[in-house]
Amino acid sequence: MKIRTRQKIFQTASFWIFRLATYTILAAATYIFLDIGVKGSRTLFTTHAPFINVPFLTQRPQTLYVFEYQGTKYTLSDSEFRVWKTQHPEEVEATSVAYSAGGVWPCIVGTALLVIGSMIFALAIGICSAIYLSEYSQNTKFIRLIRVAILNLAGVPSIVFGLFGFGLFVIFLRWNVSLLSGWFTLGLMILPAIITASEESLRAVPNGLREGSLALGATKWQTIRKNVLPYALPGILTSSILGISRVAGETAPIMFTAAYALRDEMPWQVQRWTDFVFQGVMALPYHIYVVSSKIPQNEYTERMQYGAACILLLLVFFIALASIILREKARKRLSW
Amino acid sequence: MVVMEKETEHPAPPLEPQRVVEEEPRQKVMINVSDVDFAYGDHQVLYDINMEIPPRAVTAFIGPSGCGKTTLLRCFNRMNDLVDGAHISAGKIELEGQDINAPEVDVVELRRRIGMVFQKSNPFPKSIYENVAYGLRVLGATKKSIINEAVEKSLRAAALWDEVKDRLDSSAYGLSGGQQQRLCIARALAVEPEVVLMDEPCSALDPIATAKVEELIYQLRENFTIVIVTHNMQQAGRCSNYTAFFYLGRLIEFGSTSKIFSNPSERKTEDYITGRFG
After folding, report:
1. Considering CB atoms only, which of A139, A218, A334 is closest to B125?
2. A50 preceded by cis ω (within 30°)?
């Protein structure tokens, strides 16, 4: 009797340990999302129509000026401050807080450009290599070596990718800090994940479909293009969703290769169209890094920090949502 | 003994294939297999196979599991090329006198001439129409009228047209198991092959669907050379003209179905057919 009771207690205890461990994840996720969501929404939303802080989404980051004038406290952005000054010529003692006024529009654009370019690069190279590995290659020593290389590449920290990109693209190829350098660095970073996942989705396509197609006199390439790849695409898209979130959120690979802390022109304001890929951009994760660690912190900096973080989360959420919708559409067409 | 009687009675009804066969003179050989040894890597599975498969007839391969009948079948359209390390280590296989493993033979062209229906029906996740049209499209057919015509002809030949003509655009996965297998047969017929290989086409079907496919196979004999692998001896008896019995990688006996079933010359064949082993 006694032994059974002890076993029962033991079982209940271990069950609770497992349960609590699982709940920890939920608690952590809730805390992070609530914290950023609540603090960020103070920046993103307003109490009056149109309820969304449009300037924050459409302006570029500006310096914030805080000063007292005739008993009233003013917090003005750089552009507002200049206008104010023309109306009040007298000297005021203003504290300036870098990057804490204005909005994050150039960062949103820059991040979007980085995501699109690097995903195109990574998907093109990744799907091609996955097709080669899963459909064409024999299981030789060399191919096994390649697989080990891919696995190792997946484990390389992102800062190392950043340094690699800086050395190869920025310095050796003289692309400087540019979109192109960023695309290749980010693309290489997520390439292993894309290859591994694409190969798995290709392998998941039943062999009967390949044999059926080949037996009808289709060439190997026709078989792959018409009867394997279309069915593997939903899986490949799923893997690219994770890739998108990583590309959009990583700071380390772009801080040396593609990101500027502040840039006045928007990416389309280039003199020649060829300059487009050779320009650096502002990017959300790097902007968050700059505003939260490179400038002195005070009560006025939080607005920009949490606003930018919240925007980044929303951006990743919406890109992922779009990919999921795309995937479901592709799946429906197949009725697997 | 009861079993034996049952078996020997069975080959005849309802189509009485053996009589037809014996009237037909054996004009030529469609597939000639001479002295073939076959191995997966170091593991030899076929030993010294010799056989002549006649045109426009149904040839059945029977034998217990693992005796190499499917392997031999897959040699005919070189499906074994897809298996790592699989190779014919001796002998050769000729299709109308042409060595199919000769370097100048285009394997894609060979597979167009030798169609195949698989054990597990494998319709593509496309519409019924697109399944049948697939082979034509990969051959480069683009004209709608030609494809329409070929699709209808193949579906009629596979005795499926009446069942699916109103839903050609719906998914092939909505068909029943037997219909799916007949769709796969239609798909194979669409590219107008000379030989159709069938690898246990009825193993996953219920008796009614099996009967339909068997009837179909028997009709197709008029236009195609058919080689069918089966586990089911009654099936071989019902729908084939010739039967080959394999055991442990060797061809034990090959002859007209009526002879194999009524008066086998080998003891092993008799034992297998009467159900003493296998």
Report:
1. A334
2. yes
Residue of chain B minimizing CA distance to A331: B125
Per-residue pLDDT tens, chain A, 336 aa: give them. 577 888 999 999 999 999 999 999 999 999 999 999 999 888 888 877 788 888 888 888 888 888 888 888 888 888 888 888 888 877 788 888 888 888 889 999 999 999 999 999 999 999 999 999 999 888 889 999 999 999 999 899 999 999 999 999 999 998 888 999 999 999 999 999 999 999 999 999 999 999 999 999 899 999 999 999 988 988 888 778 878 888 888 899 999 998 888 887 788 887 888 888 888 889 999 999 998 888 888 888 888 899 999 999 988 888 778 878 877 887 776 654
Locate the chain B residue with the closest alpha carbon to A136: B82
Beta-sheet pairing, B225-229 with B58-62: parallel
Q: How far apart are CA B57 and CA A217, in angstroms?
A: 23
CA distance A230 to A213: 14
Q: What is the pTM of this model?
A: 0.80
The single-letter code of the amino acid at B75 is: C
Where does residue A292 rank: exposed (0-12), middle (13-18), buried (19+ CB within 10 A)?
middle
Q: Looking at the predicted complex, does its ipTM rise above 0.85?
A: no
Grouping H, G, I as helix, E, B as strand and the rest as coil, residue A266 is: coil
CB B199 within 8 A of CB B119: yes
Alpha-carbon distance A191 to A146, whole Å? Answer: 13
Q: How many residues does chain B have?
A: 278
A145 CB near a chain B CB, below 8 Å? no
Helices A302-334/A105-131 angle, 10° precision: 40
Helix pair A179-204, A158-165: axis angle to 10 deg? 130
Question: Which residue stretches of B158-248 are H helix?
Answer: 161-164, 177-190, 207-220, 233-239
Searching chain B, which residue's CA lies closest to the CA of residue A208? B122
Using a CB–CB cutoff of 8 Å, tell me whether B139 touches chain A: yes
- Are the beta carbons of A212 and B191 separated by less than 8 Å? no
Nearest Cβ partner for B124 among A139, A212, A219: A212
